[in-house]
## 1
Amino acid sequence: MSDTQQEFSRIFQHSCFLLNLGAQDQETGCLYVSHLIGEDSPQCGTFATPCRTLPQALLLVNDGGKICLNGTNSESNPYECLKTHGPNGTEFKAIEKDVSIQGVSSPAHISCGLIFASRFKYGFVRKGSFSNLVFNNSRYGLFFFNVPSYDVVISKCKFINCQKAVFMLWEGNFSRIRERSFLKVTDSKFLNTSCGIEFGPKLRNSFVEVFLSNLVFDNGTYGLVLANVSSYYIAITKSKFFNFRKAAVGILWNEINSVIPEKCSLVATDSEFRYNEKSILAMLPNAIVETNISRCLFEGAKGRFNVTSDHRNVTGAVFVRSQASVVIPYPIHVLVSITESIFQELGHEDNSFAVSVRVDNLFGNGSISLSNTSFLNNENSVFVHGGLGLNFTNVTVNSTYGYAIMASAPPKTLIKAPGVRVFLENCILANNRIGIRMSTTTCLHNTARYCSTGDQTLIVRNSLILGGNETLGAGDAIRFGMSLPKRNDTRAVLKPSTEEVYLSPDFEAKLLLENVTFLGLHDCALSVTIEKNVIGLISVKNCRFLNNTQFVNRLDERAAIQIEFPNDDPPKCPGAAKGNESKKLMWDKKSELPVMIEDSSFENNVGIAGALNFLNGNITIKNCAFKNNEGVALGGHVYIKTGFGILNINNCSFLQNLIGHSRVSAVASFLRSESAGPLKIQNSSFVAVVNQEFDPIFAATKSSTIEIDSSTSFKCPDGKQITLKNNTQEDGFELVKGRETCWISVAYVKFFCEECPDGFYNLKRGSSNGLDIQKATKCLRCPYGATCENGDIEAQENFWGCYSSIPLVLVLFWGSVLLSKDKLSAKEFLTSCAFPLPFLFIWLYRFFFKKQSLHDFELFRKNTRDAEEIKKVLHDPFRPPCGDDYGTLYWESVLTGRRFLLLTIRNFITDPLTRLICLDFACVVTLVHHLISRPFRDRKANICETLSLMSLVAICTFNLAEVTLIAQGLEPAGPEQNLFYALEWIEVALLGFLPAIACILVALAAFSQVTRVLYHGIRLLRRTVCLRSQF
């Protein structure tokens, strides 16, 4: 090409550059560079005469100046950097001035890293901004070497295939630089970079502020990593981190010798973390560590870890750990807040957690708050360790293959160490293999012998815990346990301190459940195991345990609620003279850790030991309802094992109206106690609608004292009698405690529901008030003319020599009408009443096929004279036809039909509640029908019949109210009991009114006759005396 053509091409490219470079890209004070039309010279850099290379621009730009790179076609011809030639070959030269670089027209590609260095070790602030640049296939993108402080802004840049995209490195010999640094990166991408943004590993700035917004990090070792940074504030918003082999965000310290007093904060909002080994990893020795996450998504690869043991990797996708020494007394505070975020499919590869927070320091504390957050299909969800408060509000944990929540505290020492506190409010835990676990034993640092638990608090309110497929063969929904150190392992010397630290012998535990529903679980809903010397409270209030089954540990005596104090001390023997073998135990009624279960319901729970299972302790069950709970071998509702447990039951109801389960052979005992502790039951009801034939409904076999008040009732199924086996005091067993020996005398009480033997019957259900069996409910001898089998009574077949005839109602109705119209003779009517069915067929035949002749009418008229008396009996009380009114001469059939309907309902509907509903409805319909028809001629008769029917409706309604309560397994108590007493007296008054009037009239008539006899007798006697005196 000739010189003229080259000049023309240069002028044309320059014109294109000017056209492509709009007015908005022309900035004042910018040194322009164009690899297309620029020429390097000492005077280049203006808009009209740009430089050609970036090194020339870097030489010419002033400190604090700005370079504008023409990005047109720079992808195929990228810009180079400053280079020097040394003994090790060509090296990139450091830039020792503040500079800003911007791509114009289009993104400017740079094939090398820009290295910035400081001329001084102290007090130098390096400033710069970089925008619209692309760094591709280079070792570094932007490298700040030994810069004590910097203020850098990066926007609209791309870093592709770089080893370290943005790297801040300090290699000074002093340990701390007390300067503030600032880095802001927006609208940029980091693709296939080993480290996207890195601080360290020998950088120890006093404070670093990092702002990341609208970024994409994809594929690398770290997205953002801070190493050995003493204090920082990191804000991440609207960014995405994908496919990082170690951590998307990593904050680490290599050397930990002491607590760093500075505060560290990380804020992440509206961001996504997908398919990373760790999403946020913070392992720091700082005194205050804050992490705030909101509206973020954390997602891992779908999969399932092959579970081989219960040991878990306690790291997490979000992993925050304080690495301060265990015994450093400096206060450590860790604060984590997570709101409106989603964690799903995490921890499958390494059996880790979605969120893990750990503080090993004995004096450390803090809080972890999670709200409006969901955990879905994770291997494990949340782990905390340390003196932390963990707060869940409106959190959903669903389909966790391992632990939903796992919490523990460092071993408690004589030097006060805070325990772990877990609070759940309005949460849903569904289909998790293991729910909440607070029974982890931990060991002191630098030794494995000194292991124990710390103080623990678990409070769950207004929450729902559901079972599902993942809970099959699973762990407990809530496991709360505290194990104490062994006697010989209570002291440890901890490094680096030489101070001896003693484990505490006293612990505090608090477990509160309020308004929590446990539904469809496949292991224990609540499992508690606590050693002695623990103070606090276990409270279950207003909770519901529904349709839970426990078949995981078939060889253990397990139930829906399992509470055990395995090493509880037995009662004390009183002081007495030597040789006294009749000592009585001294029971300590005050417990350091009482168990309160109140206002709760237990329904359709099935397990080895039914609904509730206790070992030792002081247990109070109050205002609770138990319904249809089943146990395979040891009791269906409440079972207390052999030991020294104290049990109090107050104002509770037990109901069993179903028995048997598809997988078990149930024992439907309401209560089974094998404990030597006192048993006290007040104002409770035990109602068995069904029961196993040879199993007791109540059994207490080893209790030292049994108190059952008279307001407590036991009821058997209909037709069964209740029997009591009771030995008030019998010799029990000898208790030896060291040198002390005393005898435990035990009481023995069992209630059975038994069938009446053949030849006996029972129309009531066997019942007992306290230990007093009601005689009226015992089996009675079968009367003459009846058959009694299995407690039922039936009339012998055809005992009265005739069968009941249903067609009688129709005969009375139709026959009354025919008789009133003189179409039926009196003899035929009377005969049809004795044989109703044949005459119904005869009358049907006459009605449809035979027309009556005049002779027949004459015959019937003749016969009507004989039927007048019958008509008076059947028709006189009722209204005759008049005009359009057909009258009610047939009403005798209605009266009979009403009785037949009530008897049919009574005999053929066996369920008491359904029977009384139908009877009440029939009575109301009858009353309405009577009010509409007004069948009697006499108005007073209609009023009397109305009052009678209203009384019948009232009586049926009163009984319906009572049977409705009984059908729910409840006994009237308190104001309800008084109300039912009043209703019973009203019923007696209504039923006895007419008989009482009749009795009064009979008595008056008898008295009148006696008076008349006496009167006439006296008169006769006087006349006789007078006659004798005359003679």
## 2
Amino acid sequence: MAGLLNIISKLFGNKYDKDVKEITPIIEKINIEFGKLSTLTNDDLREKTSDFKNQILDFTSNEKQEIEELKKEANLSTTQTDEKEGLYKKIDSLEELIITKTEEVLNLILPQAFAVVKETAKRFAENDEVIVTANENDKELAATKDFVSITAENASYKTSWDAAGTEIVWDMIHYDVQLIGGVVLHEGKIAEMQTGEGKTLSATLPIYLNALTGLGVHLVTVNNYLAKRDAQWMGPLFQFHGLSIDCIDNHQPNSDERRKAYLADITYGTNNEFGFDYLRDNMAKRSGDLVQRKLHYSIVDEVDSVLIDDARTPLIISGPTPQGDKHEYNEFKHKVDQLVAAQRKYVTTILADAKKLIAEGNNKDGGFNLLRVFRGLPRNKALIKYLSEDGVKIQLQKTENYYMQDQNKEMHLVDEELYFVIDEKSNSIELTEKGLELMTSSTEDKDFFILPDVGAEIAVIEKSEKKDTDKASEKDVLLRDFGIKSERIHTINQLLKAYTLFEKDIEYVVMDNKVKIVDEQTGRIMDGRRYSDGLHQAIEAKENVKIEAATQTYATVTLQNYFRMYNKIAGMTGTAETEAGEFWEIYKLDVVAIPTNRPLQRDDKDDLVFKTNREKYNAVIEDIVKLTELGRPILVGTTSVEISELLSTILRKRGVKHNVLNAKMHQREADIVAEAGIAGGVTIATNMAGRGTDIKLAPEVKTAGGLAIIGTERHDSRRVDRQLRGRAGRQGDPGSSQFYVSLEDKLMRLFGSERIAKLMDRMGLEEGEVIQHSMVSKSIERAQKKVEENNFGVRKRLLEYDDVMNQQREVIYKKRKHALHGDRLSLDVANMIYDTCENIVEELQASKEYENFKLELIRLLATESPVSEEEFKDNSIEVLTEKVYENCYKSYQAKSSAIASQAFPVIKDVFENQSATYENIVIPFTDGLKTLQVVTNLKEAHDSEGGNIAEAIEKSVTLAIIDDIWKEHLREMDDLKQAVQTASYEQKDPLLIYKFESFNLFKALINKVNKDIVSFLIKAGLPTQSAVQEDRHRAENHQTSRPENSGNSPQQAGKPKPKAQPIRAEEKVERNAPCPCGSGKKFKKCHGK
């Protein structure tokens, strides 16, 4: 098949050749424009930026002017609610048109704009300094940047500056392949460029072009070191042309500095911080607390790492949950420990029997026992070693295939003697009857770990002749018992996973008395990240460290759904081709492979396959020693901390000097990668360590053969192996790559082809012998494809669940946004009143319950029925709804005016006597049950004679009620997601049930939000005794799921920089002095009580 595809691509050309061919005419235009710029002065070159901006403004000026006129019309008090809705829809469509037209004009000026960036890079590379006539931007830069200085009327831009602590001298000019990459990125695609081909420089082209719009460009990186480095490295190129640039990771969350960073033309930052700022903005209490503006254009560096690896888990902002510190992990830990010990003892015995039977030629019974061992403890080291012997793995696969036929019909015979069964491929575990017996042997209750059949039990209760009250109490006891046992079984399952499927120094490490997850792709510690559903707490119990309290989700989003909110998104990486299908299906991102500037000279050798790990590691050590003697630097890629430390120990004994880079040494990453190109140097690192940092080679190293890559194991994903290989062969440098594989490797055990095992058995290989052939390498790649398909399925499933949440999130966040800004809030309130009226009418009109209808209107809307009983029974729902709405809305408007009149005397007195003390004031507002503090601007309240109070009340009430109900809804959705997973046991799709149930939950949420907001607004008023207070706004302290990139140092993170407050402290009032509220009473008799 592969050969046929090669023939077809030679005849007709492949996709990537066609992509590049389509871009070639644009590159020719860029180079023509570039040739015209050499005669321009530096000032004339800079003037081009202003010309481009003016072209863009002129192209969309009519639409922008029309939007301003529509907004003025919508804000008029005479504009009716229905008219406002139409005006806002027109504004939205015009804003979409502006985005479309902006893209059109950018495509027109692209060749000239790219040429300007290339010419600027050329002048920076050919001169020690570039001198221009100083403008205001130059003077501002000179005050803070060392590379800009002002002399008389001129500004001097030095072409060397500091980037993340390293002094750099600009020496780069864009190659044609980098121009191709720039065009691909501007078109909203993924540019796959090999390591060392200048992705960072290539990105400067579309960044400059799209920054001209003033809508903002976000450059997203995988860690804060790269974000800060790239912003400082590329910054002067943009600042020379008057474009502003900043990095959000330099500033604290929710700070004025971070808000300013988002207002820059170009903003660098990490994916986590961009996502968390979006969530924080949607938890903000005031519009002034928002930091992000509308998301426009984003370029994601190392796009596969961000949009695939990091997208496996959602971003979560959480807070304390009631009884979050209550759990049963410590109580049941000893039972699970006994269970695992019993299984391990039994499996050891069965494995010995299996070996004996197979040696005697009894393959049937031996294979049966072998399968039982495999399903009991698949990671048993003795089993893994035995499976590498001749014919053993083939026998296991034959036996497994036999018992798996007819939908595992006979598999219960294998499992019945086990205490629990492990499915390593699906990462699941199931307790057996024998395991339950062992667990309950020390308890009197034999049903201690067995869920009651709720349906059957309730049916029995219903059929009984007991009183209704007794039936209700029995049902409550039954459901409470079900809830307790569900949590208990969940605890046991998570503990079993922790003990059998999660190994220390492989999936996680224990540091500072905490369990920290190791990213299987990058080998980095994921600080702050925790396994979900109590698994992390189970591992903490296993490792005898402090079990952290459970938290409640306050806001969450997947990276997939966050990045899909941008108008345009692009990405760059060296390893995207293998995931091209996923990029297109989820993000609609096309992958374009960019050719290298110089031909690739790296020698990629076929895999060396051994039977056991011991043989493999011995061969790796010998290869390392041989290569060091040749003076070549070696990068050894590993897949876990355990393997890197094992190899380090062996090399230390052999006296080979080396560096180790794994999750425990993460803080030294930049230093270790910088030394990886030294002649004879050995660096042991996880496969993707040092992404974004090139390993540069000295001339003598290139002569010796360049960097040697040794992979100690094939990763589950082909692109991770390609990333490791890509460290060598940079910019035409020589190099080589060699992967060592054994049949004991995880990939080979789970998905390895039967052909390889059969081939090794047929050849009768002795210990230490190896096979190497292109067919074997391709067979391994097929195994990797199986894993990639499985992983894609997991990520897609996560996204499908979050898509349901995202539809709800968009509705709620839109309501919050309208409340924060206030411009469309009056329309929202009117719609909520209408929806509430419609719900009341719909619920009661069908059954003609007029009395209940009247009671509901009084209870919820504090209004009498505007219709008689006859009208209620005879009229349609639409007519009744209109009448109720008109009556209710009129009374609400009258009440708003009354509140303004009631509050204005106090506001007037405070403004006239204490306006120097207060800028914003707080007005208490209550419905008799709860009180909300409403914040409004004192001057605006005075000037409008209290007219702005109604809007301030609507804002505060809407935000407070939405936030309270939304948090509870998120908890319900978390519980629902966990509960529906049991549907698979009933041959039902959990996702379909989740969608159906979540729709009902959200429908109930919207109804509750509308009713609570409308009821509070209509029923509430000023308390009998009210006082104007100062506004004391405090930021809430929430926890993020990935806090590693949350700003500067940990010390700074704990103590945010204080900023000037708009309100002065309230002066202390003596008890016998007149009360400041203006009542005329003494303070002790009024508000001093």
## 3
Amino acid sequence: MSNVNKNNLYHPGTSSVRSVSSTSRNEVRYDIPFQPMYSNTLPDVPFEAKFLPHPFPADRHVKYETTMMERAYTGELVTEDDVGIFIDLVLIDKYEPNPNEPVQLHPTDELLCSDEDALSSTVKKSRHGGKAVPWMRRTEYISTDYSRFGVQTERQETKLGYHIQKVLKEASLYRDRESQLTAINKTFEDAKKPIREHFSKRGVYAVEELPLFPDFDAWKYPFAQVIFDVDPAPRDKTSLEETLAADQICRAMIRGMMDEKGEQFVAYFVPTLETIRKLKSVEGKDISEIDLSTTFDFKLLREYNWSVKNKASVGYEENHFFSFRDGRAYYNELETRVRLNRRRVKDGHVHSAVPNSRLIVRYRDLNDQELAALSARSMVVNPLEEEDDDEEEAEAEKHADGTAAEKKLDTDPSKLSPAKDNNQWSDNEVKFEEGSPVVEEETEEEIELYFIEALKTGKSCALFYLVMMPMFNPMKKMISDSRFALRTFFRTLTSAEFLKTPQNEPVLSYAPASDERIQLDQAIERLTKQVNNIHAVIGNEMFDCGFTGEQRMPFDHKTVLARVAVCDKNLIRKAIDVALDSRLAWERMPLEKRAEIFFKAADLASTKYRMDLNAATMLGQGKTVAQAEIDAACELIDFWRFNAYYALQLEKVRLISSKDVQNELLLRGLQGFVAAISPFNFTAIGSNMSSCPALMGNVVLWKPARTAMLSNYISFKILREAGLPDGVINFIPSKSETFGEVVLPSEHLAGVGFVGSLPVFQHIWKIVGNSVENYYNFPRLSGECGGKNFHFIHHSADFKTAVACTARAAFEYQGQKCSACSRLYIPQSMWPEFKDALIEICKEIKIGDPRDYSIFMSAVIDRPAFENICNYIEHAKSSPSLKILYGGDYDDEKGYFIHPTLLLCSDPNDRIMKEEIFGPVLTVITYPDTHCSEVLASIKDSTEYALTGAIFAQDMNFVNQARMDLREACGNFYVNDKCTGAVVGQQPFGGSRKSGTNDKAGGPYYVLKWVSHLAIKSTLSPIHEWKYPSMG
């Protein structure tokens, strides 16, 4: 046993090592080099193993869920520089072998390296236990199944090598490099022999011999094999239709889709007769000769389920196909195999295709990334030629420059493929006739199919098609209404990605010629070409109420954007009854199920309805595209996702329990209904005020603002499309006084969510307080009432940052943000330069129609707002303590336009320094540099509001002082940033004092505002004693 054959040891670079099987000493096989035998003296188990049910989770002792604090904590990284002098504790020299000393193996190692036949065993074993288990291979359970099925983990390479040796009877084949070269050279000799007969099929003879080459021209395109379960061609065809069907099949397209239930499928599109004519007319043409505006119409024929395998799939066998041209045969690889089976619904019937569905396709150039991918694939069969190894060194230097130039030319993407190859289908659209359902596509990646080519096979072959491998583009998008659905290609976030890593929805740029900008223009055109109708929705009923209300464009107040149903008191009472009838079923639905609806709604808002939301916000509320995107799209999506995420996290909170007592804390909805009264200035806030209480199990009456009806109506429809049940949220357009007279005195009122002016919220609070004896519960009141927000500039501030942030905070969205900056405190030493810079920005600000992407400001929302702001400007013109430095102009002839206005104030007690203006008016107070601390301390009590504020300073001592002095001056505090732009999940929003109840919407605890907790104690051990120990 100690004699080790050194020739059988494994050496790097050798392909295999000889070993002798224990079952047969006459046959040589190849296997892993080290194969010890393990002895087993125990008898076989006389019965089959039994499995007992396990009442506990298998991972209960090892499973651990991290808390939010742990996930948020960032550990410190201690580097080499932090621990002092570097000391190497490992002496590498000690591990270097001595070349003069022979290598001696340990006896155990020698035993492990010995052949199997050298391991003699006298222990009698059963035929099952006698099987050798190779070392370094996965452990195999030896059972009675082994004798029937054999070792299932046997490696394919081992089996194949053994089979070849057994058939050829050449034990030394491929043993060393010389034999490998001999075998390779033999293949060249064999290739010269003529092939007359098929090597395995008798009676099959060759009729033509062709040279075989890789398909150099087409290799750069990835191909896939698509196998249909039945012939996809239309049935019952005439002879003329047979020809047309062949043309359709040869030019068909497949595309990944998703239906209204969220189920994914593959749609099979065939070209129309007009499209076939167009395609034939452009075949063989260079892309420069094709009108890129030409569209090709494909109709949906069938729907399929699919299974896909590719090179990366386990067990996938490489497949190739052949093409014949110029007297040669060319082969190309099939990277992917796709099997398509007709869709069937649960009752077994074949799923019918959506009627009147269309796929609209255009040609376009390949982009740089696609050209680079084609170039990389082309290099597989067209590698750059290297210099001849035998070339003289001097000659190589002489031609080095020329060779390098040739190589550079070969790798240029524009040279690798001719212009005619740069054709690709793009700008995919799907159109529907009136009344047909919309086919949704919500896959992670957008598929672009280049072309489909039919491969004609023999009569006995199954029908299959070769298609260009789909080009996956993660930047996809879709918007639609009842008649039109459009796919685009920009990056969004899915709820599935969000749940893996919670993050905010990406903000799109809408740069010129970008996909999102093109789609937004189309959405704007669609919403403006007709007056939109907005219904009241109560339960599953829609009411028009004669469409007596209107929503007009603030920048063009003569244009009616939408006609609105206005509910009377009877309809509002009906809405309360419908909501209460829906409450129990909704409240008792598991939170996870409710959350799924809002995650799906977020995905719809991120894709299908994103441009409609933005367009409606721009047209109806006068926001620029930048302001609409961060509000109507991103913030709305973030509210839906983060609220659901936070609620699910809070539900996981566990109380202290013991073996005898089980304690639970449940999150219930409120008993009654919640009234949501939303503002005009943020589309996202309106939907959040209704959806957050609904998420927590409440039913809601939502009264949207008169000037934000269209965008709020679209967000409401998104929730219904996502699966929100009837009656959970009821959309109630109505007059404020009518709504309040019915809702506030109702005995079923459980809560009020309000965002608006301070006097209105104070009025609501008074009515609720006077009616408190009539309610079943104490209603929850949540309100946000604006602010008189400030920027405080310290002399150490970064000048450019302070100027830019102040201009944005004061004038973006015409100052109509609750957080807009309306007060500026600045040192006198900085003011002259700061004033010039701020006035210069005001001069550059462009005001106009939001459909002009170059503007920074548009019109204020309506005439009452316009008149209110103008009154403050007129007050500034007449007040001795105020001076207009810039602006002060306004015009309402076409829209309610007010120019950015900059005021200098000498009296900090002037009403313009205390009252909310809600317009593009910024008032400045300068202070002596030496009085910084006194002015800073006075800010907190200078107004009754406490919403947002910002300081700008590089002096950290001052920053720390300001954080303490202004602790109660605002609810959102910013350091070296503007006082607007709170982001969901990052800066929960809300203020105290007269700014509101500071419930911090967008934060982890806002959902608890709309929850009635239920604590449950379950005692698991009997209690028989009524006396306490102290009683003796």
